[in-house]
Amino acid sequence: MATYNTEIQTGGGGWQPDAPLKLSIVNRNEVVPGSGAPSTGTTVTWSGDEGNGSVTFFDGGSNFQGTAQFPGEGPVAYRGTRTG
Which residues face 18 on adjacent strands? Predict the structure, then answer.
């Protein structure tokens, strides 16, 4: 599982800290390994009751950039830096 410190950027302001993102996706292969990070260029998209987003990973999975939208809020720019 990869853990990222995240930030959001709203239309009227700068970057603001957000909750950590924890990510692990495993099926026949490890898209996001249990003990590692996704490879550069990997894109992850999610959608559900708790919000939706789409992010792409760079620099060997050490960071990502994308967008997210959480319940009751508008879409925001979303980025993160790997912490674990």
Answer: 6
Does domain 2-82 fall into CATH 2.40.128.450?
yes
**Alpha-carbon span 33 to 26, nearest angstrom:** 7
Using the Cα atoms of residue 5, residue 10, residue 15 and residue 16 in order, give the sign of their dihedral: negative
Tens of pLDDT along 24-66? 877 777 667 677 888 899 999 999 999 999 999 999 999 999 9
pTM > 0.85: yes or no: yes
Cα dihedral 58/64/66/67 (nearest 10): 170
